Amino acid sequence: AKVQQRAAREGFDWPTVEGPLNKLDEELGEIRDAVSANDPNEQLSEIGDLLFAVVNVARHLDIDPESALRFAVQKFRGRVEAVETLATQKGQALKSMTLEELDGLWESVKQQQTH
After folding, report:
1. 3-class SS of residue 90
2. How far is CA 25 from CA 21, 32, 40, 52, 65, in A?
């Protein structure tokens, strides 16, 4: 974010958030290509580019990317714990459940939570 802020002060920036949003699409496509090519070095590079683009979107929206990531991690943790609780209530262990069953519990938890 600091590197991007410095570049923006020098005029190297998109005028609106649409530029960084479009860059996300581009970078995601490049990750898909790197995965298809089974190229770990390119995958590493493209993941870095995607993260950099996400930070740029956050900066344009005046959102601290680190705070946003922490919030997402906390939300994920809470949902996983809620899924574990639902599974326990059903007498099941997560490890023994199918991906479809887990996804069903996940969707149930998402509908119950607002964030």
Report:
1. coil
2. 7, 11, 20, 13, 18
DSSP state of 93: -
User: Which strand (E) or helix (H) includes residue 94?
Assistant: none
CA nearest 19: which of 59, 47, 69? Answer: 59
Q: Measure the CA–CA gap between 7 and 13, rounded to whole angstroms.
A: 7
Q: Which residue has the tokens 């923006």?
A: 8
- What pTM was computed for the model? 0.83
Question: Residue 112 — pLDDT band, cuts 50, 70, 90?
Answer: confident
Tokens of 59: 């900066």
| Alpha helices for the chain (secondary structure H) | 2-9, 18-36, 40-60, 65-89, 99-112
pLDDT in tens, 33-70: 999 999 999 999 999 999 999 999 999 999 999 999 99
Those residues whose C-beta lies under 8 Å from the C-beta of residue 33, and which sit 6 or more positions away, are: 42, 46
Q: In angstroms, rounded to a whole number, what is the distance separating the alpha carbons of residues 68 and 49?
A: 18
